[in-house]
Amino acid sequence: MLQSERRSNNEYNHRLSRKGYQGLLEELRKKPGASVDKDIDRSDLWVLARKGKDGEFLNDATREVAQNIVSINSLRIILPHYTSQPAVAQLRPILQRAVYT
């Protein structure tokens, strides 16, 4: 199977080209006034990797998952105890909850 065929099967294609996630992190670090933690959440990177240069998503499915991620992250900021409760559903990574719910 060719790479282009495999890529066409992906539901949520990234738009990073050859730079990949590491290149995205480096790009974020180089922006003036940006402070990027070593422990940046991978769900945030997932959203950034799927935005085009115009800030738009390629399709509605990707936009919906990105909105789920933003909602979950907002809850985590508003309710800090939200992620510290021992419920199994709340211990799942943000990206997993956003994609599979």
What does this structure look like?
By secondary structure, the chain is mainly alpha-helical. It has one domain (3-99). It is 53% helix and 0% strand. The protein has six helices and no strands. The protein has helices at residues 3-8, 20-30, 42-49, 60-78, 88-91, 94-99. α3 (42-49) runs antiparallel to α4 (60-78). The chain is globular.
Keywords summarizing the entry:
single chain, 101 residues, mainly alpha, 53% helix, 0% strand
Radius of gyration: 15 Å
Q: Write the element-wise H/E pattern from the N-terminal end onward.
A: HHHHHH
Count of distinct strands: 0
By secondary-structure content and strand pairing, the structural class works out as mainly alpha
Low-confidence stretches are none
Q: Could you describe the largest sheet, including whether it forms a barrel?
A: none
End-to-end C-alpha gap: 30 Å
Shape: globular
Range of strand content: under 5%
How many domain regions? Answer: 1
Helical segment tally? 6
Instruction: Give the overall pLDDT as a whole number.
Output: 78
